[in-house]
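Bench log, entry 3. Co-assembly request; chain sequences pasted below exactly as received.
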Amino acid sequence: MTFAARWLRRLPSYAVLTICAALLLFPLYVTFVFSLHPLSEFLGDGVPSLWPSDPQWGNYFESGGGVSNTPIGRYLFNSVVVAVVITAAQLITATLSAYAFAFLRFPGRDVLFALFLATMMVPLEVAIIPNFQTMQWLDGHFREQAWLSWTQIRWIDGYPGLVAPFLATGFGTFLLRQAFLTIPRELRDAAEMDGYGHFRFLFFVVVPLARGALATLAIFAFLQAWNQYLWPLLVTNDPDMRTVQIGIAAEANDVSRINVAFAGTITAFLPMLLLVVAFQRYLVRGLFGGSVKG
Amino acid sequence: MARVYFEEISKRFGGTHALRDLTLEVDDEEFFVLLGPSGCGKTTALRIAAGLEEPTAGAIYIGDRDVSFVPAKDRDLAMVFQNYALYPHMSVRDNVAFGLRMRGYARDEIERLVQEVTATLGIADLLDRKPGQLSGGQRQRVALGRAMVRRPQAFLMDEPLSNLDSKMRVQMRAELVRLQRDLAATFIYVTHDQVEAMTMGQRIAVLEGGKLQQVGLPQDVYDRPANRFVAEFIGSPAMNVLEGDLVVEGGHTAVRTPAGLVRVSDAASADVREQNITSLAVGIRPEHLTPEATESAAATSAAAASPAAIIEGQADLVESLGSEQHVTVVAGGWSVVANLPSSPRIERGATLRLAVAAEHVHLFDIESGERVGP
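Structure output for the full assembly:
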């Protein structure tokens, strides 16, 4: 087949892909364009232009009016702390529990795993009230009880409360268990003959082999933690403890600065974009060539 | 190097018996083969020896040490797995060195041992490759190297050649035998392939249903199978087995099979009478069925001199292997396979008269399956 013929044959699928990509990217594009409009663009009767005819980079940087002048730095910092802690904790807890479900034999294992799966079917919104009450109760205890109050831990308006419900998830356990199950059992047997205990085997063999799944979980956990809205809104009242999503929403409430709110949205989105670009090769590459026949 | 002794080992998985009362002694420096169909318990036996599985009952000895409760890593055994079980993210060097690192060898000592072992196996130039970049045979050698480098008391091999193509398998078979001799090591080798068992094993043990059926030299097991299972499992094409009732004709004891009368030797008939057996299974190996000699050659053929049976039938299927031909003969509604010389070529539909000598007739009790007679 000639180059041209091959290209022609691929044309329809590329056309479909292009349309899908355009549909997905359009809201992003609108946000970006709006973030560059002067405020006057939003005050007229018509729909704001879809072309940045008069780009106002000052929406991002200008002191006294731009994103850089809001406490966005503080919001971003809070979000990074929360997302990093949640991601790290999920990687650790999910790796350990998934290893147990994939490689160990113990009574009640399958029932326990079913329970883990069941937690995935409970929507966040259902758990949010009891979780909030738990945090309130903890916060009260930590403020009132002398033997706890010295820790200065705050479950409301504090990082512990922001991260606590998300340190371990059924989803992470499930995702990693499935990945671990693709690792041949013989590798465990071979490592056992070689004198490697469970933790060494986990560290030297399982983790390197499942790093695709671990990266997937990391990105997923980070994205979820970063994009959380309802929970941080509930457990924070202090503006200093707001995450970036709450901060932007607070900005957007101020109609006189709507263009800056769009600029804030773009700012909050950038770290995510960088993360996905940096890790996408792990999401794609298969890592199991050559371990066993086939 | 050491002997390995299985003492009344039983293993149950839930309700199923994987092994029942297995007692076996593998001698020091012996190439010992555990042979049986899949699910017979041979791999379980190996894993129990390795310490990867705990026996439900019984004890396992390595040398004179009872290792029943010793963890796998302290038994000083090495195992080679069916699918090689190489660590796919590590180079050949790291794969071979993996076990040594854990055992606290010095860095240059590890390098020296790895070089030595990989040179022996002819894979020294592959040290920096990953398993994914190797052929099946090369991966198998790496797996062997990983086992050898620790100089274990014994090698446990779980169908190590079954993933190789047939040509490679024949080559590795010879190499493993040579390796075992050079290392003067104890090998316990699990396989379902009777050719591997016959060609490699100094002694073989046949297992079925978790029970030991027979232990012995390969030729002895082949010549005098202890029961009907062993008789039919070992040998290719498989032994012909015909069932029939015991009759007395013309002063001779014989079995009336669908394919004709088969005379029972005097020694066997004494046993038959003693055990009150009324019906028997008659086993005849395909290579012991020979075309009945023409009158002119009768004098030279022992079988023709006093054949225990003559089976007459039509050739239904002729499989020519070049050096020989396997002919399926239908006699009295039963198929019997004969292994005949490639010449003269037998045509389909030809009528054959096949004779078998008395010493090549195996008899088994139909009830118990046990061998009857000498």
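The radius of gyration of chain B is 25 Å. Residues 280 and 367 of chain B are 9 Å apart (CA to CA).
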